[in-house]
From TrEMBL, chain A:
Protein name: Protein Mo25
A molecular-function term among this protein's GO annotations: protein serine/threonine kinase activator activity
One Pfam family, short name: Mo25
Gene that encodes it: MO25
GO biological process: intracellular signal transduction
SUPFAM superfamilies hit by this protein: ARM repeat
Family listed: Belongs to the Mo25 family.
Organism per entry: Bactrocera dorsalis (Oriental fruit fly)
UniProtKB/TrEMBL annotation, chain B:
Chaperone as UniProt keyword: no
Subcellular location as annotated: Cytoplasm; Nucleus
This protein's encoding gene: STK11
Family of the protein in this entry: Belongs to the protein kinase superfamily. CAMK Ser/Thr protein kinase family. LKB1 subfamily.
Protein name per its UniProtKB record: Serine/threonine-protein kinase STK11
Length: 340, 571
């Protein structure tokens, strides 16, 4: 035991006293809460230092970390911390995120014990996702960093994608606070693009609900940023080879073509440009279904004129010009299907 | 640093057995032997002498010995740097342009074995234009033009005795050169397509690498030009941290050159593996690179790109140890609407090809080709060997195509999980071969092998372990070097040898010091470790010339905008 300074608490003691402090914070009155707040902060710093090491102590020993994680699982403290995140002070919130992410990354051989633990306690994930709700905007960004750390693990991403809560993201990405909406969008995107096969399966299984009911709304959002970001993500999703089945389905639906053609005419040049990259897939499709072909044929000459004058100042971008020329040629050569 | 050797001799010497060209009535002829060879280059311009380089020493001895034998033999290896050797008339300074009719030039043609022979003018010209010897660094266009103006009778071939003591060296001035907005630095490496040099973006001061492609070299490679066009098309649209970024492409029509500006990388995985003991990496380090390779490959496959030439030589490393997949020369992008990943051509490196290509199948799954190559790559960097070998490509393909490969017992002993993963990736049957998803779920892939000992460091660039910018010396010379500084740059072989010996001693002392430091550190493990590197850079002499740092007002011209050369030779 060191002669000077405080005695080192064991992981079990730390976890216990933190748990007590949080319970006190949850229930206590003004006076008690103040004291509890102090205890919570102190204990969080100690746990953080135990995991990361601090400037004046050695990096943590493996058995201490193992013991600490075990205590965290047994006491269910992770969930408790996340549920009370809004009650913890500013620095404390950051420490919670640091502790959570560190414990999550812990690996023993091929096993990730924390990931396995969270799989058995999915409410941790759902509580984190609810962090984007309007009730406590101050915890949204901390929840976001923890969520994205979770999304790196396929098992956890799967739970999140296939949950009812996932569809709440369509609301979160449109909240009025810009930084929260952006953070929610990056988590949303991470969940949809990180694990290719998982995402492809999800999109195929939930095609109607995802695209027809929800994504359409994002593309028609009144918020410029939402419109532009979601259109860009749509292009990325459709052009990813892993989502081939989803793409073929998407480009065979006339509603989607109409939407893209309207977006080509948007005021914003950036949106026009992103829409072009989705629109081209409809035209390039060698097996266009009749409804798609009909729309293109009806607008044949208008489209040719429009595309000829479309973003003519992008002379530097060779690929864009090649693609544009290709589309014009394709549209010019369109012929109606022979009457069967 | 370039070194020019002025060799003085007189052609009207009575004991000279040379038969002098009748056209050249003057007794004193200017003879210029032009050749180029290489040796190590230091980043610091103020260093007068080249650093110790055994290659150079060998080179010099070779030169010396063969001079005695009335021949010149040089060991040429242009991958390192440039030294030009000029043998000039004793009475005339080398000035071919001012008196072109009377100059007489021979060209050293270096064959593949490093031996050199004299080649007469016309032949030399032809050789120059064809550039058949990639390892010779040829001179710039003015000097080539000078060669054009000369006439030479083949009958006048002669060998001349040269006393090595009469050779004096001259440090080549660091002439600053710009391509577009990029300031050129030294050569980083050389491929079949051309050199790769370090550059500095003069607008944002970012360190970049430029791949210089000459039309002449491209034409000699089957599909060379198409491959480069394809690579540019593909790379422009790729954006991933494990795929090398192409930032800019510049063309110079006059010089028939193309400049591809890329991210600065410190070299390939191949060089790193080669520099390691037993040519293999510790497992934890191999694991780190392999994970990044799979991440980059998954992105490429998502973009419908089949790389087809995955191998350690095509995997670059950045300064912060990020692996970058490069060389998309034979890559193929699948059609957006292709039903599956069927490919019909495979042009990658033979040792990394799967059985379906070795057996000459008409069509095969493209993604599975890349998986196989990744398997061979993993095997190679972990063990230093190849799963399949053969004296020639036929034997090799026979071995690859023979049937299911089995992991050797010693591989299981090394790491059973690793052996399992490699076996999964080297399934002869493409359908049974792992997918990227399966690799991601593989126990070896998920688990992180224990870090035992330090990782293999990135090999130093020309003895510079810090990989300092090689552009700075050029900028330094441009801004702070005055004409007077350049006058005293002649030095003799004696000086050179002395400097080399001095540097050898310094290097030895440094190694000794480092060892002592290590022992000290080991003995005193708890104490604060002091930097062992303090002496490293100072050991080399820093004879900063006593110069009045006079800035010269000189207009910097980009070579992209140079006026058309007066006499362009037909190619």
């Amino acid at each position: 035991m060191p002669l000077f300074g405080k005695s080192q608490k064991t992981p079990a003691e730390l976890v216990r006293s933190l748990k007590e402090a949080i319970n006190a914070l949850e229930t206590g009155g003004d006076r008690k809460a103040e004291k509890a707040q102090e205890d919570v902060s102190k204990n969080l710093v100690s746990i953080k230092n135990m995991l990361y090491g601090s400037s004046d102590s050695e990096p943590p020993a493996d058995y201490v970390v193992a013991q600490l994680s075990q205590e965290l699982y047994n006491s269910n403290l992770l969930l408790l911390l996340i549920q009370n995140l809004h009650r913890i002070d500013f620095e404390g919130k950051k420490h919670v995120a640091l502790i959570f992410n560190n414990v999550l990354r812990r690996q023993i051989g091929t096993r990730s014990p924390t990931v396995e633990y969270i799989c058995t306690k999915p409410e941790i994930l759902f509580t984190l996702m609810a962090g984007y709700e309007d009730a406590h905007p101050e915890i949204a960004l901390n929840s976001g960093t923890m969520l994205r750390e979770c999304a790196r693990y396929e098992a956890l991403a799967k739970i999140m994608l296939h949950s009812e809560e996932f569809f709440k993201f369509f609301r979160y990405v449109e909240v009025s606070t810009f930084d929260i909406a952006s953070d929610a969008f990056s988590t949303f995107k991470e969940l949809l693009t990180r694990h290719k096969l998982l995402c492809a399966e999800f999109l195929e299984a939930n095609y109607d609900r995802f695209f027809t009911q929800h994504y359409q709304r994002l593309l028609n959002s009144e918020n410029y940023v939402t419109r532009r970001q979601s259109l860009k993500l749509l292009g990325e999703l459709l052009l990813d080879r892993h989502n081939f089945t989803v793409m073929t389905r998407y480009i065979s639906e006339p509603e989607n073509l109409k939407l893209m053609m309207n977006m080509l005419k948007e005021k914003s040049r950036n949106i026009q440009f992103e829409a072009f990259h989705v629109f081209k897939v409809f035209v390039a499709n060698p097996n266009k279904p009749k409804p798609i072909l009909d729309i293109l044929l009806r607008n044949q000459s208008k489209l040719v004129d429009f595309l000829t004058n479309f973003h003519t100042d992008r002379s530097e971008d060779e690929q864009f010009n090649d693609e544009k020329a290709y589309l014009i040629k394709q549209i010019k050569e369109l012929k109606p299907l022979p009457e069967a | 640093m370039e070194i020019q050797i002025h060799q003085h001799f007189s052609t009207d010497d009575s004991n000279n057995n040379n038969n002098i060209n009748n056209n050249n009535k003057k007794s004193n002829l200017e003879q210029t032997l032009v050749a180029a060879t290489t040796h190590s280059v230091t980043a610091n311009n103020s260093i007068l002498m080249p650093p110790l380089d055994t290659k150079l020493l060998a080179n010099k001895q070779g030169l010396h010995a063969n001079n005695e034998a009335n021949n010149i033999n040089m060991d040429v290896d242009t991958a390192d740097g440039e030294v030009s050797v000029l043998l000039a008339n004793k009475n005339f300074h080398y000035d071919a342009l001012s008196n072109p009719d009377q100059s007489f030039e021979a060209d050293v043609n270096v064959d593949g074995n490093g031996g050199a022979k004299f080649v007469a003018g016309d032949e030399a010209k032809q050789l120059l234009s064809e550039q058949t010897h990639a390892q010779v660094t040829w001179l710039d266009s003015e000097q080539i033009d000078a060669l054009d103006l000369t006439t030479l009778d083949i009958g006048n071939m002669f060998f001349n005795r040269v006393d090595s003591a009469e050779i004096i060296y001259q440090k080549k001035k660091k002439e600053i050169k710009m391509v577009g907005k990029y300031v050129m630095g030294d050569v980083l490496g050389e491929g079949s397509y051309g050199k790769v040099k370090e550059v500095l973006d003069s607008e944002n001061l970012c360190r970049r690498a430029v791949k210089i492609l000459t039309k002449r070299k491209l034409r000699r490679i089957p599909n060379g030009e198409q491959n480069v066009q394809r690579e540019i098309q593909l790379l422009k649209h790729l954006q991933h941290k494990n795929v090398v970024a192409l930032l800019d492409v510049l063309y110079n029509e006059e010089k028939q050159k193309m400049y591809m500006i890329m991210e600065y990388c410190v070299g390939g995985l191949q060089e790193l593996v080669d520099s390691a003991p037993e040519k293999k990496l510790p497992l934890f380090q191999a694991h780190r690179y392999f994970c990044q390779l799979i991440s980059g490959l998954e992105y490429l496959h998502g973009c419908r790109i089949i790389h087809k030439d995955i191998k350690p030589g095509n995997l670059l490393l950045s300064l912060d140890q990020i692996l970058k997949i490069s060389d998309f020369g034979v890559a193929e992008q699948l059609d957006l609407f292709a039903a599956d990943d069927t490919c019909t051509t495979g042009q990658g490196s033979p040792a990394f090809q799967p059985p379906e290509i070795a057996n000459g199948h008409e069509s095969f799954s493209g993604t599975k080709v890349d998986i196989w190559s990744c398997g061979v790559t993993l095997y190679n960097i972990c063990t230093g060997q190849y799963p399949f070998e053969g004296d020639n490509i036929y034997r090799l393909f026979e071995n690859i195509g023979r049937g299911q490969w089995q992991a050797p017992d010693w591989l299981y002993k090394l790491d059973a999980q690793l052996a399992g993963l490699i076996l999964g990736m080297l399934q002869a049957e493409p359908a049974k071969r792992y997918s990227i998803q399966q690799i991601r779920c593989d126990p070896w892939f998920i688990s992180a092998p224990e870090e035992k000992g330090p990782p293999i460091p990135i090999p130093p660039l020309k003895h510079d372990v810090y990989r300092r910018s090689t552009v700075l010396p050029y900028l330094d010379a441009y801004h702070y070097e005055t004409e007077r500084d350049l006058e005293e740059v002649y030095f003799t072989e004696h000086d050179l040898n002395r400097e080399l010996a001095r540097q050898a001693a310094a290097a030895a002392a440094e190694i000794k010091a480092q060892q002592q430091q290590k022992q000290l550190a080991a003995a005193n493990a708890t104490g604060p470790s002091t930097s062992a590197d303090a002496s490293t850079s100072n050991s080399i002499s820093k004879e900063k010339k006593s110069s009045s740092l006079k800035r010269r007002a000189k207009k910097l011209t980009s070579c992209i905008s140079v006026k058309k050369l007066s006499n362009c030779r037909p190619s």
